[in-house]
Amino acid sequence: MTEEYVDQALIREAGRIIREGGLVAFPTETVYGLGGDALNPSSSKKIYAAKGRPSDNPLIIHIADLSALSSIVREVPESAEKLALRFWPGPLTMIFHKSERVPFETTGGLDTVAVRMPSNRIAQELIRAAGGYVAAPSANRSGRPSPTIAKYVAEDLEGRVEMIIDGGDVEIGLESTILDLTADRPMILRPGYITRQKLEEVLYEVEEDSTILKDDCGQAPKAPGMKYRHYAPRGELTVVKGTEERVVRYINEHCHTWHGNNKKTGVIATDETISLYHVDVCRSVGGRADEETIARELYRVLREFDDEKVEVIYAEAFDDSGIGQAIMNRLLKAAGYRIISV
Ligand code: AMP
Ligand code: MG
């Protein structure tokens, strides 16, 4: 990350674009964001149009200073103050009751608003230059894996936004943890780098939306966006769970059959298993014990399968504790919840 050097002329220009109602894609520590003025209803509409995103899927407002929070929310609960002190700036989004300043176009018609303070320097300086409130979903076309490098932003959004700021590789690679503070008890709506255990070091008890790791048909996720197919590569993705030996055997056998049917095959492997597969495209997301690397590599690898035009993809399953929960949440969504136990 070229954190030390931030081109001030570029930031000023990007800030002007957003203040005048345009869109700028920019790096954050989680994934690249597609930014517009959060307090301008027409900017939010443009964001939905550029992404092809359903307009009932609310946007997260990004701020750069804690003092900006009080004017967009009805009240700041004590729990939020504690969490902000510990985790902001950083990959935690909190949901509050919104104030009148926030247009319903930004919140997808909801009375609540999601707010985050990113730690990435370019993001912080852009937010300040843009007037302090930047609505920014991930900078991908709706349904696609979130971009972790500027090249993938350009692939999805070139010609649909006024500017794309290249800040190199992101640090985390998965979207923020979303915590709802408007219910009786704090509830995680989307898992992320900041895990339940870390949140419970600050708050006594944190609940989790029951739809995080399963396709709970009867139950709508509380974060509207989580109900949509997401993060998906173009090839058909299946997650395979079991002992290493069985998983490798299952995937090799099935890829062999697909290959015989003229389908290009791919595997999301780990450093431990990458040499064991006989498929067209095999990519490791890192060592099994290194969750942070797996989180950072996952979306890039999914996009690489598209670059290589892979048609059938198998992924090893990951342990779903800690950051692994966020990894499995994204992987299962990308697979449309197709998971096989062997
Ligand atoms: P993205 O901007 O692509 O990271 O997605 C934002 C996520 O935040 C989506 O899943 C939204 O549904 C969720 N979200 C944003 N605002 C709210 C809100 N007020 N209440 C619940 N979920 C929200
Ligand atoms: Mg997104």
- Helix share of residues? 25-40%
- CATH top level of the largest domain is Alpha Beta
**Overall pLDDT score:** 94
Widest sheet, order of strands: 7-1-2-6-3-5-4-8-9-10
Q: State the CATH architecture of the largest domain.
A: Alpha-Beta Complex
User: How does the overall form come out from the CA principal axes?
Assistant: globular
Largest sheet features: 10 strands, mixed
What is the number of E strands? Answer: 15
CATH homology-level superfamily of the largest domain? DHBP synthase
Radius of gyration: 20 Å
Query: Would you tell me the structural class of the helices and strands?
Result: alpha/beta
- N/C terminus separation: 40 Å
Within the CATH hierarchy, at the fold level, what is the topology of the largest domain? DHBP synthase
Q: Which spans of ≥5 residues are poorly predicted at pLDDT below 50?
A: none
User: In the residues, how many domains can be counted?
Assistant: 2
Strand proportion? 15-25%
Helix segment tally:
9
Quaternary structure type: single chain
Name the bound molecules. adenosine monophosphate, magnesium ion
Written as H for each helix and E for each strand, in order along the chain, the element string is HEEHEHEEHEHEEEHEEHEEHEHE
